[in-house]
Design brief:
The structure is a single chain. By secondary structure, the protein is an alpha/beta fold. The chain has a single domain, classed as Alpha-Beta Complex (Amidase signature (AS) enzymes). It is built from 16 helices and eleven strands. The protein is globular. The model has no long low-confidence stretch (mean pLDDT 97). GO terms for molecular function: catalytic activity.
Length: 482
């Protein structure tokens, strides 16, 4: 019952546990064997807590939808008493938590067997995962010379290669969708505040960051979102309520939708030909399914949003660094904080309180602009915006190294993060739901994700469309050779 462990999804494995065909302990042993066999080449799984996992099985697992299925937490956020974290940083290495986060409480209630964490870049601010604290880069199982993306890069690599069938991630500028695209997986960023942030933070990056999951199937994401959605007590704001739930939504095709497709960046800049071709292929698929597909560009100030995003994230990074330095009695140096983090701290020092509030105001104004794209005065806006997830296939290792001390250039310079990933952060800023669907492949055999976004609160319609595309163009059998 384990011969196809690296191919089937978590829902199928949970069904096998429920039927008695395989036990949680057997699945855990197999996942650990996969770590031993594959992780030395990938550097994706860190901080294993095998005794914690075995003790959870021995106590009896919750009767959730994924009872007995092995699972990994991203090594950034998702605070848990039993799972210390480096948070991608030497400064924060071996951080312990006094209580569990709300998102971890809900994940644990699904019945998963959590046994460790997955790598992330320092501060979660990169599109690659190459943090010094892990002793080397995390590599893409489709081609070890390329990145699995970031900041949930370790999660993407671990799921793609078959160490676990799904894993926790988080997304503040594409950090679930970028690894999904790079690794040939499904990844969805829900509507702002759909998932809980507490109690450690009220919101992440002025509301732009949210948790999520890297999965092999749409149904696994749907089930996890149903299990984990809803604000925790005291949250500063709530997402619009779901109508029926994600699992119910994917049980049938959505209504026929108006789709705006964009084969360039949202500012009209050209993207890699393989990515543009994948967008056209996805547009044809949606037309064949009966949706109404037309080309277009969203009218919104994307460059202004990206500048505001850069300032806000610098300030958030600076807050984390200064607090940790004070708590540990350390002085800022290259030995404890990488170049991008030190530069972000320096940039934050140029941003006044008024500047910060102006940046947040810009993000809020941008969200209203994007709302107007979906719901213009003439009522003829799209239901879905279709693009590539990234402007290029997965980048080579080292291109987005955190060694640079030019944080603004790292984010906004020619050929850097926002040129490489011009689509994802748009929907973190707007708060609208968005997903990467693994439909494309480059000429070199690397995955290319297709990006779909919907109006604020329309998570169920978006995930139903993703499920319809999965049924029409199944991707489950496409696996990396590693």
């Amino acid at each position: 019952m384990l011969d196809d462990f690296d191919c089937v999804d978590a829902t199928e494995l949970a069904a096998r546990v429920a039927s008695g065909a395989v036990s949680p302990s057997e699945l855990l042993d197999h996942a650990l064997a996969q770590v031993g066999r594959l992780n030395p080449r990938l550097n994706a799984v860190v901080l294993p807590q095998v005794d914690v996992a075995r003790a959870a099985i021995a106590r009896g697992l919750p009767r959730g939808p994924f009872k007995g299925v092995p699972f990994l937490l991203k090594d950034l956020g998702c605070e848990a008493v039993d799972f210390p974290s480096h948070n991608g940083s030497r400064l924060l290495a071996n951080t312990r938590y006094p209580r569990d986060s709300a998102i971890y409480d809900r994940i644990r209630a699904t019945g998963v067997v959590t046994f460790g964490r997955t790598t992330s870049p320092e501060g979660g601010i990169g599109a690659a995962t190459e943090a010094a604290v892990y002793g080397g880069p995390t590599r893409n199982p489709w081609n070890l010379d390329h990145t699995p993306g970031g900041s949930s890069g370790g999660a993407g690599a671990a799921v793609a290669v078959g160490i676990v069938p799904f894993a926790h991630g988080s997304d503040g500028g594409g950090s679930v969708r970028i690894p999904a695209s790079c690794c040939g997986l499904f990844g969805m960023k829900p509507t702002r505040a759909r998932l809980p942030d507490g109690p450690y933070v009220g919101e992440g990056w002025a509301g732009m960051a949210i948790d999520g999951f890297l999965t092999r199937s749409v149904r696994d994401t749907a089930a996890m979102l149903d299990a984990c959605h809803g604000a925790d007590p005291g949250a500063p704001y709530h997402a619009p309520p779901l109508r029926e739930g994600h699992m119910q939504a994917i049980s049938r095709p959505p209504r026929r939708l108006r789709v705006m497709f964009c084969d360039t960046s949202f500012t009209g800049a050209p993207i890699h030909p393989d990515c543009a071709a994948a967008v056209h292929d996805a547009a044809r698929l949606l037309e064949d399914l009966g949706h109404h597909v037309t080309p277009g560009l969203p009218r919104a100030d994307v460059p202004g949003m990206m500048r505001a995003w850069t300032d806000i994230v610098a300030c958030g990074t600076a807050l984390g660094i200064t607090r940790a330095l004070a708590a540990r009695g350390l002085v800022l140096s290259p030995d404890v904080v990488e170049g991008v983090g030190r530069s972000a701290l320096a940039h934050a020092g140029t941003v006044s309180g008024a500047d910060y509030l102006a940046a947040v105001g810009k993000i809020h104004a941008f969200g209203r602009e994007m709302a107007g794209v979906f719901d213009p005065e003439d009522g003829q806006g799209p239901d879905i915006i279709l693009s590539a997830t990234l402007a290029e296939p997965p980048a080579r290792i080292g291109r987005f190294s955190h060694a640079t001390e030019d944080y603004v250039g790292y984010r906004m310079g020619p050929g850097m993060i926002f040129d490489y990933s011009p689509f994802c952060a748009v929907f973190n800023a707007s708060g609208q739901p968005a997903a990467s669907v693994p439909l494309g492949m480059s000429a070199e055999g690397l995955p290319i994700g297709i990006h779909l976004a919907a109006r604020f609160g329309a998570d169920e319609e978006l995930i139903a469309l993703c499920a319809e595309m999965e049924r029409a163009r199944p991707w489950a059998g496409r696996r990396p050779s590693l």
